[in-house]
C-alpha cells in the first residue's frame, strides 16, 4: 500500500541586513529546502550556519498546511541571532511536493 502526503518546498532569502554582514551574506542570498529534507544552495554560494540555526526550527512547520489563524501561516520573517548584523530572512513556500511515506525515515 502506498501512503503519500504533501509538503511544500521552501525558499529562505536574505531580505534585509540592518547592520554589517560579518558572515558574507548579501541581500538576495538564499537556500531552498526541497523534498522534505534536501538543502540546496546556488552554485558557489554559502549560507551562514548561525543564520541557518535561527530559521531551522520553523522549516518543518512551514512545509505543512497551516490553519489561516495560525501565526506561522502569516509570519514569514526570521532574524539571525547576531545583533550586529541585523540580518532578516524571509521564508516562502514554493511548489507542493507529494512524497511517499515509505520512502522516508
Report on this structure:
The protein has one domain. The protein is built from 2 helices and 5 strands. The protein has a 5-stranded antiparallel sheet with strand order 3-2-1-5-4. The longest helix is centred in the middle third of the chain and has 14 residues. The model has no long low-confidence stretch (mean pLDDT 92).
Number of strands: 5
By DSSP (H or I, 4+ residues per run), the number of helices equals 2
> What general form does the structure show?
globular
Given helix and strand content, the structural type is alpha+beta
Q: Give the helices and strands as they follow along the chain.
A: EEEHHEE
Give the helices and strands, then pairings.
Layout: E1 4-17, E2 30-34, E3 38-40, H1 49-62, H2 71-74, E4 77-79, E5 87-100
Antiparallel strand pairs: 1-2, 1-5, 2-3, 4-5
Give a short overview:
This protein has 105 residues and is of the alpha+beta class.
Which tags fit this structure?
105 residues, alpha+beta, five-stranded antiparallel sheet, 2 helices
Amino acid at each position: 500500500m502506498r501512503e503519500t502526503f504533501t509538503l511544500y518546498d521552501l525558499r529562505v532569502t536574505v531580505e534585509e541586513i540592518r547592520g554589517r554582514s560579518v558572515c558574507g551574506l548579501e541581500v538576495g542570498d538564499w537556500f531552498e529546502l526541497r523534498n522534505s529534507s534536501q538543502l540546496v544552495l546556488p552554485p558557489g554560494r554559502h549560507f551562514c550556519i548561525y543564520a541557518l540555526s535561527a530559521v531551522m526550527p520553523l522549516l518543518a512547520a512551514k512545509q505543512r498546511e497551516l490553519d489561516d489563524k495560525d501565526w506561522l501561516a502569516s509570519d514569514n520573517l526570521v532574524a539571525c541571532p547576531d545583533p550586529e548584523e541585523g540580518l532578516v530572512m524571509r521564508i516562502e513556500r514554493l511548489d507542493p511536493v507529494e512524497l511517499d511515506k515509505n520512502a522516508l525515515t
